[in-house]
Amino acid sequence: MERPKIALYWCSSCGGCEESVLDLSENILKITESADIVFWPVALDTKYEEVNRMKDGEIAACLINGSIRMDEHEYMAQLLRKKSRIVIAHGSCAYIGGIYGLANFYKREECLNRAYKEVPSVKNPEGILPQAQSRDGEVEIELSGFHDLVKPLNHVIEVDYYIPGCPPNPENVFEAIMSVLQNRTLPKGNVFADQKALCATCSRRDTKPEKAVIKEIKRLHEWQWDPEKCFLAQDMICLGPATRGGCGERCIKANMPCRGCYGPTENIIDQGGKFLSALASIIDSKDKREIEKIADSILDMGGLFYRYCLPSSLLEKKVKSLSS
Amino acid sequence: MKDEKIRIGVYICECGPNIKEAMDVNEIAEFIRGFENVVLTKPFHLLCSEEGKTLIEKDIKEYQLTNIVLAACSPKEHEITFRKVLRNAGLNPFLLQIANIREQCAWVIKDKALATQKAKAMIAAAVKRVAYHEPLETKEIQCHSDVLVVGAGVAGISAALTLAQKNRKVYLVEKLPCIGGKVARYEKVFPSLECASCVLDPLLDEVLHNEHIELIAFSEIEEVLGFYGNFIVKVRKKARFVDSTTCIGCGACSEACPVKIKNEYNEGLDNRKAIYIPYPGALPHVAVIDGKHCLHLQGKECNACQDACPFGSIRYEDTDQIQELEVGAIVLATGFDIFDPKKVSRYGYGKIKNVYTSLEFERLLNSTGPTEGKILLKNGQPPKRIGLIHCVGSRTKKYHEYCSGICCMYSLKFSHLIKEQLPDSSITEFYSDFCLPGRESQSFFKKLADKKGVNFIQVKNIDSVELKKKDNTILVKYRDINGKIKGRSFDLVILSVALEAARNARELAEIFDISQDKDGFFLEEHTNIAPVSTSVGGIFIAGCAHGPKDIQGAVAEGQAAAGRILSKLIPGEKLSLEPITAEVDEDLCSGCKTCISLCPYKALTYDQKKKTVSVNEVLCRGCGICVATCPGAAIKARHFTDKQIVAEIKGLLQR
Amino acid sequence: MNSFEPKIIAFLCNWCSYECADSVGRAQKEYPSNLRVVRVMCSGRVDPQFVIKAFKEDAEGIMILGCHAGECHYKEGNYQALRRYILLKKMLAQFGIEGGRLRLHWVSASEGDKFVTIVSEMVRDLKKLGPLLLRDMER
């Protein structure tokens, strides 16, 4: 009987999701003992052509990480969708847009200008920006087109399952792959993470009193906090209550508050908006000016509340209004 | 969301000409007919008529409609009416949505095309929303119909007597060893100037002998658990050290007792013994030992009272007892305390002789008081010139901004009674404004103003009044209405002090979990329309615990609280609960506890074992604060769910 | 731009503001038809997610109307609405959504004239701001 085939691909990616596969450690052998990895650009030299030649649905499970930002990403996502039975969005970028998604607060031109012209360490006196098509003497150079927006995977193809995380917990990666290899029937859209928010498994939950309201917000660099107490009970922003658990609380254990990388729980419509609601609700003041002062102390609300999920949020990006 | 199981019937009411002439009903009907899940769209001339209601009922059965949308007048007008129609047709009453196309469309938009456009959006929203409606049941719970009344003053007694009925028991808990509160220590009450005990004693008698009222005197509330219909209350019955079944109140024990202490029932104007009856005529007429001052109970040698008692009623070995009560509702009628003028040195209270608070003066007037009702100076002589200072502690930013409401009347009462006893005396009332509301106050004032020797002086700033000792008299310095500083001398001055929240109000508020206003009085649920209930279901407030008021007001509130309870908590019947409440999905609740302290009704509790939050459906009022707050979206607002509201938004914005 | 008619989603609380809107209707006072009302029991029910969703669905302006300070039927729900509104308004600015598009007002059931003024002013201001163009086609 033919051994099932597994593929992995990276779009706009930092490589952390690849490392989450490496972090399977010996468990990788459990996968390779029954399946073959046929396409994995970071580790294997398989060409796109070989993928093209595969039959539709020939790949049992394809894990795609990274967000969609370039033509190439979209092309490969669609190709792999065709050739795979199950496509799994691997990591927060593919799941909900990832940190790259924060670029959606800026226009395409602003991003390119910043990277190629404005950054202090760049020397680009002619102000050359990468083009999709250009010439160098006789040679035609094609670069993959750079999109206006960062998108999560399910904005360009149909996705079957999701593994959240930046990076994902290797346990969730393992579970996802094995679920396909073991032919488990899971609902479409299944997320390999806890159903409940992080607080359910957080070791600091019991240190949080039933009344935890705030009169000010303390930022990380401003002070030394209690390494065993709930962050919100110490006036620090922690997105744990609005974020799925299952990550193993690695940040909490490293004494850092949750930043929301595992994405929203299932009934949340917009992760950033929901967390904003919860945070506003615990402000201990009825005075407009006092509340505004606390609001002003959060310098980048959009970035903080939508750190990993801006492209998959309701607004997705900075909007354009006729008056702007 | 297309679903074969959903069959929506849409009825557009023409409301006579009101809606029909303001928009194109047929165009709207055509538009709605094209919507998902809509199987029936009918304009009708008047839906709230018998004909209209019958039609809907018939259609529901005939077309197996599962959800109904009515485009008509405001839901605040007829939601209840049409919910009944659904119920009669066998459909859950909450599977209805009303689009308000009269008050919020036809009547406010003159342009027919614009009105039609808005109506389409409103009905589209209702159609989309109703597809997500879920049947809701009005649940019922068992409840206790017994009631706890805390405080046996005039408000508490009024509540208790109104409540005491067959099959309904009242526990009346009183902190002091005697009942009747402040009124029992007054001589006369305004405006009739009837004797207070004539008014009060029949009520006190009834309380002591009513078989449905269990008086627990000399006791305090220690703990309250539970909720409306099911409160569990722990009462600490303090040791009296006297057997109340055999003591007849003869007073032989007090005669014999060697210990003298300042008598708090006479505001410290005279002394009492360590074993005492609060005042002559105090009910229940049973002695009580003050454990802190009794020699025997402090471990010293003394059996004076035991030896003197002809009935062997002394029980030195008495201990505090805890009694647990199961009640369905609670009335807090814990009264008030007076402002302490020692705080304000310019009144000279406690330094200058013959300066009295109003409560002290009540005791001077009272035949059971330290002077047996004779108005006397400290030197034993009757005064000739008496001054009364209004607004001591009231209506001033420094102490209490509010007006205590009864001081003007009781000051007038004092003047009346002083004139009666000392017809040749001269009385001067210093006031800044006169508060005389109600039917009889003005004539009460006029009767006094017409008497000889009674003067009213309006002062420019009540905070400017100063009392100084001048030889053997009291000089009252004040600014007259023109701002000129003047002075008058008196033999005796009465300070009409403010009514304040009781000193233990904070403690009580914590035990019962109710709110206080900024002055410490218990806060009502709504100033105008719910004055005797609190935001905690099942706990009611009455009398001065709820703010300064006169006896009539206190009695009215006591009876009102009783009325509220009698109509809701009926023996044998279950308490029906609000169906539109919040619901926590335990599979999604992470136990982050963000919601708990935000509930105005304390309806959210954290289960320490399950580590999740749950909603007490008896206490939840369905405001939705917790739902919007929940960062994990684990709480659902029944009938106002996220899905329903989002569907409504989509419908309203539909192109 | 002349034919631009902004759509406003207004969250009205059952006890004060919805009652106020009904009273305006009973008095038959006109106000712009741009207003689309969502009835909630308390302004404290208004979830910032609804506001964001409404903008996403092409609302040009959002209004939250609750009871005056100290008059909330549920004690302090209106303060919850205020807190969320302040933070949300600030965050929406980062998304390019102008402050004038999200408004919070406290009205009592008897302030019909204030209601008409608030709505008319918002329509006038939104016409100047123009459409939000959330769906502008970008690749």
Strand content bin of chain C: 15-25%
Proportion of beta-strand residues of chain A: 5-15%
Q: Describe the strand arrangement of the main beta sheet of chain A, using strand numbers.
A: 2-1-3-5-9-10
Model regions low in confidence, pLDDT < 50 over at least 5 residues of chain C = none
Average pLDDT for all residues of chain A: 95
Q: Provide the domain count of chain C.
A: 1
Low-confidence stretches of chain A: none
What does the overall shape of chain C look like? Answer: globular
Characterize the biggest β-sheet of chain A.
6 strands, parallel
Strand order of the largest sheet of chain C: 2-1-3-4
Q: Give the structural class of chain C.
A: alpha/beta
* CATH topology-level name of the largest domain in chain A: Rossmann fold
Secondary structure tally, helices of chain C? 4
Please state the average pLDDT score of chain C.
Answer: 92
Give me the Rg of chain A, rounded.
Answer: 22 Å
CATH top level assignment of chain C: Alpha Beta
User: For this structure, what is the CATH class of the largest domain in chain A?
Assistant: Alpha Beta
Q: Judging by the overall fold, what is the CATH architecture of the largest domain in chain A?
A: 3-Layer(aba) Sandwich
Label the overall shape of chain A.
globular
Q: Could you name the CATH homologous superfamily of the largest domain in chain A?
A: NADH:ubiquinone oxidoreductase-like, 20kDa subunit
